[in-house]
Amino acid sequence: MKVKVSRKANFNAAHRLHRPDWDEQKNQAIFGKCNNPRYHGHNYDLIVSITGEIDQETGFVMDLKVLKDLIKEHVEEALDHKNLNADVPEFKELNPTAENIAVVIWNKLRPYIDQANELEVVLYETPRNFVTYSG
Ligand SMILES: Nc1nc2c(c(=O)[nH]1)N=C([C@H](O)[C@H](O)COP(=O)(O)OP(=O)(O)OP(=O)(O)O)CN2
Ligand SMILES: [Zn+2]
Fold first, then answer.
1. Is the pTM of this model over 0.90?
2. Parts of the chain with a pLDDT under 70
3. What is the active site of this protein (predicted)?
4. Less CB within 10 Å around the terminal CB: N or C of the chain?
């Protein structure tokens, strides 16, 4: 019997969607206001979920206090109040779209999650735009 447990988190970050190999007109046409050369911010909401068997001794799939601390150490400290393009090595040459940010977060957390459990990351870039990555 598998059960999914989840932890919500939040971080604020600035970004710019841009490809240096495209001219200004194409960047503007594809990325619109997220191509602003002065960057802009989003208030990202994150839901991290772990799916697995319930441990018969603890009753936990995973201790949510441990998950909270992992998100704080590996996601919030890396991304919160950062300029994603300029401050976060993973985005030096990777566009910080919601999709790519979700994959980066998943990769940061996966090494710390029990191999027997599944990891899912849901990232809200705006209240109505969100992406899901499960590996
Ligand atoms: N597939 C993707 N599409 C878009 C992304 C993305 O990361 N992946 N990002 C953006 C913008 O960065 C950002 O999400 C703003 O988009 P917008 O359409 O303005 O969304 P809002 O929810 O703020 O707008 P509403 O009008 O309130 O719906 C765009 N596309
Ligand atoms: Zn944006």
1. yes
2. none
3. 34, 81, 125
4. N
| Cα 33 to middle of ligand 1, angstroms | 9
Of the listed 34, 76, 99, 120, which one is catalytic?
34
Q: In what order do the strands lie in the sheet with 130-133?
A: 82-83, 2-15, 40-53, 118-124, 130-133
Establish whether 77 is a catalytic residue.
Answer: no
ipTM, interface predicted TM-score of the complex: 0.90
Q: Whose CA is nearest to atom 10 of ligand 1?
A: 34
The residues spanned by each domain of the chain are 2-133
Amino acid 36: pLDDT: 95
What are the tokens at 135?
A: 């590996």
Domain covering 2-133, topology: Tetrahydropterin Synthase; Chain A (3.30.479)
CB-defined site of ligand 1, < 6 Å: 17, 34, 97-99, 125-126, 128-129
Provide the strand spans (E) within 30-124. Answer: 40-53, 82-83, 118-124
Buried b / exposed e across 76-86, counting CB within 10 Å, b at 16+?
A: eebbeebebbe
pLDDT at res. 45: 98
